[in-house]
Design a protein that fits this description.
Layout: E1 2-7, H1 11-26, E2 30-31, E3 40-45, H2 50-66, E4 73-78, H3 82-89, E5 94-95, H4 104-111, E6 149-153, E7 155-156, H5 167-170, E8 175-176, H6 179-191, E9 196-200, H7 218-228, E10 235-239, H8 248-256, E11 263-265, H9 273-279, H10 285-298, E12 303-310, H11 317-330, E13 334-339, H12 357-380, E14 386-394, E15 400-405, E16 410-414, E17 424-432, E18 437-444
Parallel strand pairs: 1-2, 1-3, 3-4, 4-5, 6-9, 9-10, 11-12, 12-13, 16-18
Antiparallel strand pairs: 7-8, 14-15, 14-17, 15-16, 17-18
Helix pairs in contact: 6-7, 7-8, 8-10, 11-12
Length: about 450
């Protein structure tokens, strides 16, 4: 029996998929690369953008046409809004939350492999009966899909309730994973030779606040990880922090430990205070500016990444220009810019989506041009210098490695004898582009 997973969306979903793989393989399934060859097909859903949800419906429509020709079992998990949950229950054979993962083999045994879509799909347990993620899901050892890069979840859910966001409604309130488990997983990964480890959470800065008397705070968790990995050849990252909760204590810990990477992802979402209020972001541009100033002062070599939404409900041209000005001011190395799309269940879905799609595309294009200018300026400073690069694979262009700097700038390097993915190398920068650089290997590290 073979399975195939389709994870959509963020790194958290990618990490969730690695634990789902473990449970399926322990149940006797083996992974296959082609969904056409699988007996069990699953999608790890994302509800952040409508496009991701559309992919879920597209997949299950295709898979259900295959059921007329061969036995097949389908499931969906991940981030699912209540409105979509009811619809998807009618299309998939199984729907389960990540908290219920340890019970999935029994669900499959009870259901069996079916051909037609079920007339009466299983009823999910009441919300109050949802298993504790700390006692089930996080106890599953991941089947890591890479031997170089690994994700380590430290938290699930979110308490911020940004009006555009579905996470509190799909993953629930914040729950922190025990710090001992996190550090133990990081230790195992370092001992196994992993080169990058990313700590995952919807708001990593609030780690431990849901267990005030039992857990450390995020800066202390980072300090302990820094101590644990001292002297190791690894870069430790985290995503995503919330600007309101980002204190100097976190930045000072990063500055103290070489394995804590000089890269900060700090979502701004908008550069206009009135839009930030409507988004319920709970900070103003002046507060965000103070955090960026701290990053530049404490971590002068760090790259700065962000997230931005254009065309949020009610966003005027003047408000958009404030975001453009903020991008010019903060000069990001990378920005993930998205056109706003309402998510059913999120507060903003009740408001008019009143910025035309064509205008959203124009605003995205304007900000992309700003990003390319500022990122090129950063990268131009690397021309003619040597940088440390992690070789993380092979480029799509034959004869080249792909890699990244500590600041996560993509690098293309000619393949050289004696080198392979997973190695840290010293490389000479030969060319720069807005969002990447080219280099040649000088020596191994």
């Amino acid at each position: 029996m073979r399975y195939h997973l389709v994870p959509l969306g963020c790194q958290m979903n990618q990490s969730d998929a690695e634990r789902i793989m473990t449970v399926l393989e322990e149940a006797g399934y083996s992974r296959c690369d082609r969904e056409e060859d699988a007996d069990l097909l699953g999608v790890i859903s994302c509800s952040v953008r409508q496009r991701a949800i559309d992919k879920v419906y597209s997949k299950i429509h295709l898979w259900n046409t295959w059921k007329a020709k061969r036995p097949l079992l389908t499931f969906v998990s991940g981030c699912i809004l209540p409105e979509d949950r009811e619809k998807l229950l009618k299309r998939f054979d199984l729907l389960f939350s990540i908290n219920e993962l340890p019970q999935v083999p029994e669900m499959i045994r009870q259901y069996g492999v079916v051909t037609p879509p079920p007339a009466a799909p299983p009823t999910p347990p009441p919300l109050g009966d949802t298993p504790d993620i700390r006692e089930g899901f996080w106890q599953v050892t991941p089947s890591y899909t890479s031997t170089i890069e690994a994700y380590v979840p430290i938290q699930n859910g979110c308490d911020k309730f940004c009006t555009f966001c579905a996470v509190p409604y799909t993953r629930g309130r914040e729950v922190s994973r025990p710090s001992g488990e996190i550090i133990a997983e990081v230790r195992r990964l370092v001992e196994s030779g992993y080169r990058t480890i990313t700590l995952l959470g919807q708001n990593v800065n609030s780690y431990g606040l849901d267990q005030r008397s039992e857990e450390v705070r995020f800066s202390e968790l980072l300090r302990r990880i820094g101590e644990e990995t001292r002297g190791a050849d690894v870069w430790i990252y985290f995503t995503s922090p919330h600007p309101r909760d980002m204190g100097d204590d976190v930045l000072e810990v990063i500055a103290r430990y070489p394995t804590l990477a000089n890269q900060i992802h700090l979502p701004i979402q908008s550069g206009d205070d009135k839009v930030l209020i409507r988004m319920n972001r709970n900070y103003r541009l002046s507060g965000y500016r103070r955090v960026v100033e701290s990053v530049r002062r404490i971590l002068p070599e760090a790259t700065l990444f962000t997230d931005i939404i254009v065309g949020f409900t009610g966003e005027t041209e003047e408000q958009f220009q404030h975001t453009r000005e903020a991008m010019e001011e903060f000069r990001y190395n990378m920005a993930y810019i998205a056109q706003y799309s309402p998510r059913p269940g999120a507060a903003s879905a009740r408001w008019a989506d009143d910025v035309p799609q064509e205008e959203k595309r124009r605003r995205l294009h304007v900000l992309t041009e700003v990003l390319e200018r500022t990122a090129l300026d950063h990268n131009s400073r690397l021309a003619g210098t040597e940088v440390t690069v992690l070789l993380d694979g092979y480029d799509r262009k034959p004869g080249f490695f792909s890699g990244k700097t500590e600041g996560r700038t993509p690098v293309r390097l000619p393949v050289a004898d004696g080198y392979h993915p997973g190695m840290f190398v010293r490389a000479a920068v030969t060319d720069v582009r807005p969002l990447s650089i080219a280099a040649t290997i000088r020596s191994a590290l």
